[in-house]
Amino acid sequence: MFELSFFDLSLLLACALFAGLVDSIIGGGGMIQIPALFAVLPGFLPATLLSVNKFGSIVGTIGAAIQYSRANRVPWGLVVISSIFAFCASVAGAYLVTQLPTEWLRGALPFLLIALLLFNIKSSIGLVHAPKHQHHKQKAIASAGASIIGFYDGFLGPGAGAFYKLLYTRILGFDFLRSAAPAKFLNIASNLGALCVFFYLGYFDWKLGLLMASANLVGGQIGTKIAIKHGNSFIRKGFFILVTILIMKTFYDAFLK
Fold first, then answer.
1. Neighbouring C-beta atoms of residue 178, cutoff 10 Å
2. 231, burial (CB in 10 Å: exposed 0-12, middle 13-18, buried 19+)
3. Which of the residues 15, 81, 90, 107 could staple to 154 if both were Cys, CB 3.0 to 4.6 A apart?
């Protein structure tokens, strides 16, 4: 059980909603939600906060994935095989993070966020749908990429959704809308793999998890509708501004507080 002030509760809900919104459009909602959880609840074990982030992300991402799959045909063969690899790799990553000293996570987080922010600023979403590989090679590349990103997602996770999208747009040649549903299903798979490990080891808080999941779901539904109808340029600007603020906040908490 935990108690939050009205301000802290509002901050968590706002960050979870915006994380769901951003994640549904370009991925990377964990870059917003994880720092918010660490900043507001410094007394919680990192593994518990990571598991709460996974649970909320799964709920929000499922809603977004359903909407995207209705708008564009999903390459289910490619998605299923790469999702299996993402799930298994995430299990390994999540188990490893529970076995390592956790103090370094808080100190590493602002630097990781800076790197991911710079990477996303320089990246661009695919505008033309032109798959680069044939079916068997496509599945092999997607599975290898999903394994790497899935392991990272289980171990820490911020920006994993954006990496899945970059896998499909940059490496496989999909455009934005056609990459959206596959990237979401991969993200669900790796989040679920990590969450299974956290559940099994007892790192979870149901009250906090349901709180974050509800806001994630609302944000994901809003963001998906915006992405399908209007694109993502103005959301990207808000995303960069908020993540920059959170970088400063997590750096202060880790080194100056």
1. 22
2. middle
3. 90
Q: What angle do CA 205, 242, 192 make, to 5 degrees?
A: 35
Alpha carbons 247 and 163: distance in angstroms, whole number: 19
- The neighbour count for residue 233, using CB atoms within 10 Å, is 8
Q: What is the pLDDT of residues 112-160, one digit of tens each?
A: 778 767 766 665 544 444 456 567 788 899 899 999 999 988 887 766 8
Q: What is the DSSP string of 150-192?
A: HHHHHHT-TTHHHHHHHIIIIIS---HHHHHHHHHHHHHHHHH
Rounded to 5°, the CA angle 158-160-165 comes to 140
The domain ranges of the chain are 12-256
In this prediction the pTM is 0.78
How many Cα atoms within 13 Å fall on the side-chain side of residue 182? 31
d(CA 93, CA 148): 10
DSSP code at position 133: S
50 near 191, Cβ under 8 Å?
Answer: no
DSSP state of 202: T
Q: pLDDT tens across 34-64, in order?
A: 888 988 998 888 888 988 999 999 999 999 9
Question: pLDDT by residue (tens digit) across 169-204?
Answer: 878 877 777 788 898 999 999 999 999 998 998 989
